[in-house]
Amino acid sequence: MFTKLSDIDRRFRTMDLFRNKIDRLLSDYDRSYLYNPASTLRSNSLKTNLLESGDRFEVQVEVPGISKDDLNIKIQGNYLEISGKRSVETPEGYKKHRNERGSSTFSRSFTLPNDIDAEKVEAALKDGILYLTLPKLETAKPKQITIS
After folding, report:
1. Residue 63, pLDDT score
2. Rounded to an integer, what is the distance from CA 36 to the centroid of its chain?
3. Which of 78, 100, 108, 116 lies most in the core, judged by the most C-beta atoms within 10 Å?
4. Closest-CA residue to 134 (of 113, 118, 111)
């Protein structure tokens, strides 16, 4: 009888040890990103909306904290590439406690459904959003065909 109780007790202690190890493993899992004072949480992905309206595409890209001088936009045919760099510097005399917006470079590229008239592209940067207006090339625009 005592042997069976001690077996049950030993199994519970083993389960407790296992649970404690899992708890420690999970508590340390995100610690390096969220609790380390000098940690950096980076994302190089630009959130983008791509819209089409008849004879043009409109692209809206989230680029908070990035100046127009740090952005590069390239268009060739129907290929669009947006790249740049984000620079974040700690002012002298300050100690970092959290650094989720670190310096980084980024790049996104898209293959659009139609070729773009690169000479008529317009770009504007407002409130951390890059707005691109990409007119379709004349040969790519839809045309109304009249029947004779």
Report:
1. 92
2. 22
3. 116
4. 118
Q: Residue 65's closest CA among 90, 39, 102, 34?
A: 102
Handedness of CA 45, 47, 53, 58 (dihedral sign): negative
Enumerate the domain spans of the chain. 42-90+103-140
Residues 4-58 have pLDDT tens digits of 777 888 888 888 888 888 877 776 555 544 444 444 444 557 899 999 998 999 9
pTM score of the predicted model? 0.63
CA 50 – CA 70 distance, rounded (Å)? 21
Q: What is the 3-state secondary structure (H, E, C) of 1-42?
A: CHHHHHHHHHHHHHHHHHHHHHHHHHHHHCHHHHCCCCCECC
Residue 59 burial by CB count (10 A; 0-12/13-18/19+): exposed, middle or buried?
A: buried
Residue 79 neighbours by CB distance under 10 Å: 13
User: In whole angstroms, what is the distance from residue 125 CA to residue 136 CA?
Assistant: 21
For the segment 71-89, what is each residue's pLDDT rounded down to a tens digit? 999 999 999 999 999 888 8
